[in-house]
Amino acid sequence: MTSEPRPVTFVLTLQPLPGVDPVKALRWILKTVLRRHGMRCVHVCEENDGGPSRSTMTAIDEVLRGYCDAQQRIFAAHRGE
């Protein structure tokens, strides 16, 4: 019995430029990375000097929930379900 090799995990830190909506930009990035490159986000957290921003974290959670639902639909379509 052979076990599958453990997938590689990358850590990426992004910082929005002035005037950029960070939640919308993050959503676009996650969708693009999944659809074009087959890499799925498994963890996201926001880091601030003053601690996590509650409203931003809630918005990111909502984005990820929608992202995960869309990802499941995409994989189901690829499998022919």
Quickly list its features.
81 residues; 52% helix; 2 helices; mainly alpha; globular
Structure explained in plain terms:
The chain has helices spanning 22-37, 54-79. Helices cover 52% and strands 0% of the residues. It is globular, with a radius of gyration of 15 Å. The mean pLDDT is 77. 4% of the residues are buried. Helix 1 packs parallel to helix 2 (54-79). The chain is an all-alpha fold and 81 residues long.
Most strands sheet? none
Q: Could you give the count of β-strands? A: 0
- In sequence order, what are the helices and strands, one letter per element? HH
End-to-end separation in angstroms reads 29 Å
Structural shape: globular
Task: Work out the radius of gyration.
Answer: 15 Å
Helix content: 40-55%
SSE-based structural type: mainly alpha
The number of helices is 2
* Percent of residues in beta strands: under 5%
- As residue ranges, the low-confidence spans are none
Report the mean per-residue pLDDT as an integer: 77
Write the topology of this structure.
Layout lengths: L21 H16 L16 H26 L2
Summarize the structure.
The chain is an all-alpha fold and 81 residues long. It has a domain at 22-37 and 51-79. It has helices at residues 22-37, 54-79.
